Amino acid sequence: xxxxxQTKTLLLTVITLLALSSFIFQQTKPTLYLIGDSTVKNGKDxxxxxxxxxxxxxxxxxxxxxxxVENHALGGTxxxxxxxxxxxxxxxxxxxxxxxxxxxxxxxxxxxxxxxARARGTIKGTGEESKEIYNPIxxxxxxxxxxxxxxxxxxxxxxxxxxxxxxxxxxxxxEWKDGKVVRxxxxxxxxxxxxxxxxxxxxxxLNSLTSDEYDRIxxxxxxNFFPGDHTHTNEVLKDELEAxxxxxxxxxxxxxxxxxxxxxIVKAKRNITANVALKLEAELGIxxxx
Length: 290
Fold this sequence. Notes:
Elements: H1 3-28, E1 31-36, H2 55-58, E2 68-71, H3 79-84, H4 87-92, E3 100-104, E4 130-135, E5 140-145, H5 147-160, E6 164-168, E7 176-177, E8 180-181, H6 188-199, E9 202-204, H7 206-217, H8 219-222, H9 237-243, H10 248-254, H11 259-266, H12 274-284
Parallel strand pairs: 1-2, 1-3, 3-6, 6-9
Antiparallel strand pairs: 4-5, 7-8
Helix pairs in contact: 5-6, 10-11
């Protein structure tokens, strides 16, 4: 075997190994799966009615050459109905070792257990209590468990697949008392933290973190984040401007919009036209679908 042939063979072997390792890396790149309700993904995730879930924006904070981000949240679901509808199974079947599951439920868990509208509630707390009910939606008997029971099921099944589970407390609503936003310290925020401790999952206290920021900003300003109701927030144009240290009036003049009109856009009181969307994309790098 001559040296030229050996060198060629070695080179082909190295190229093959590099190609194979690249393929393996692509196949094993971890995925962050988001599961939750409409505060994580609102509607079809297109900002209808200027309403967004926080899961729509989280991807930009990750290097997606190194990790995938998939938002599987569905509006109207609770920790119970997300599993009941098979939505969790569709994530679980894809889950692999090294993946992450970030979950936030609670806003809909306080609903009735067996009403004819949705029958989506869970028993309050993190205990092992259960109650058999007739589910008028499914038209059959069902055993309903506590919020904690369903959340533990998410965590334990994710960990069994080798994934890292991250429990989030639910973001606060636009509800205030004595000048402070109402926190879920004695309900779902506390119960989410208890589940994380019980299961060894990671915990992000979104309720406290967001509430702290709301209290700092103040009730009058925070109301501009909720264009439709007291639960669902609007887009983050204001945050984009603040991050770049640009005043609204200066930016409005820069893109040729009357400052008052632009202020209404930021406060979600005026729709974003196609022309304005293109200008935002050009100046801020925000996709025109914004």
